Automatic annotation (TrEMBL):
This is SDR family oxidoreductase. One of its GO terms (molecular function) is oxidoreductase activity. It comes from Streptomyces beijiangensis. It holds the Pfam family adh_short_C2. PROSITE patterns: ADH_SHORT. It comes from the Bacteria.
């Protein structure tokens, strides 16, 4: 079945689009008619058909250059998906200041830089395509769930949630919508790498599935579908929203029996 081409005529930029959730977003955007640029520090895994731009979101000048290059190539920029991020494990006692700065630099400031450099292009695009211009940020249920052993990661995603709401307020009258998705545990290379560190990855995966209310992880495609909705013209009235894609993990507030 062919996809609805509701992104026809729109130009998109996806950070962290060369793997996992970001690659799924880029693939779905292409299938729905968008022209797509992927900004990633390693673009090897970017889907065929995208404009691949190598940049690290910690490098302000490189982010500006990549964002401007995407807008120049496509003649406009309507859809920004700020998705690049990394994990961090431990309590507050486990990560030193340098590690806090490194993760915050990628997970929070990376999104600030992307938005800062995209905004001039988005403002121009909003005049031509009202309702179709948006920033969607990949947050996490960690922002509000109180997960153990995730102090730094949770704080970084809490900042992404606050940033989403503040940006939505700042830019609503400019016609730029700002939302985020809150994935639960999503089956991506990132989770694969974590499982591979255990003695028995298969048993660890089974235990992880069993801890989900639905009995399974969410897929990268399921998270991407939520991002595509938030960025689509169908969501023209949706801004300042955090959409959970977590198989019920947060909404159901289930506790072990
Ligand atoms: P992933 O590791 O498969 O992909 C992340 C991508 O981001 C990679 O292509 C990587 O190269 C890129 N990236 C990382 N640091 C970068 C930097 N400094 N500059 C440019 N690119 C950079 O991970 P994923 O699971 O697809 O995660 C994507 C997003 O989803 C992240 O923001 C993550 O916090 C969020 N998330 C993931 C899960 C999960 O369970 N997988 C759950 C909640 C939220």
């Amino acid at each position: 079945m062919s996809a609805v081409r509701d992104f026809e005529g729109l130009a998109a930029l996806v950070t962290g689009g060369a793997s996992g959730i970001g690659a799924a977003i880029a693939t779905q955007l292409l299938a729905r008619g968008a022209r797509v640029a992927v900004l990633d520090r390693e673009t090897k895994g970017a889907p065929d058909g995208v404009l691949a731009l190598t940049a690290d979101v910690t490098d302000d000048a490189a982010v500006r250059e990549a964002v401007d290059a995407a807008a120049a190539e496509f003649g406009a920029l309507h859809t920004v998906v700020s998705n690049a991020g990394i994990g961090a494990i431990g309590t507050v006692a486990d990560n030193a200041d340098d590690e806090w700065r490194r993760v915050m630099d990628i997970n929070v400031l990376g999104m600030v830089r992307t938005a800062r450099h995209a905004l001039p292009h988005l403002r121009a695009a909003a005049v031509d395509r009202p309702g179709c211009v948006s920033i969607t940020q990949t947050c996490s249920i960690a922002a509000t769930a109180g997960l153990p052993q995730r102090a730094l990661y949770s704080a970084s995603k809490g900042a992404v949630l606050s940033l989403t709401l503040a940006m939505a307020a700042d830019h609503v009258r400019e016609g730029i919508r700002v939302n985020c998705v809150n994935p639960g545990t999503a089956d991506t290379p990132w989770v694969g790498r974590l499982l591979d560190q255990s003695d028995d990855p298969a048993a660890e995966r089974a235990a992880l599935n069993a801890r989900q209310p639905s009995g399974r992880l969410v897929s990268a495609d399921e998270v991407a579908a939520a991002v595509l909705y938030l960025a689509s013209p169908a969501a023209a009235a949706v801004t300042g929203t955090a959409l959970a894609v977590d198989g019920g993990m947060q909404g159901l507030r289930l506790r072990p029996a």
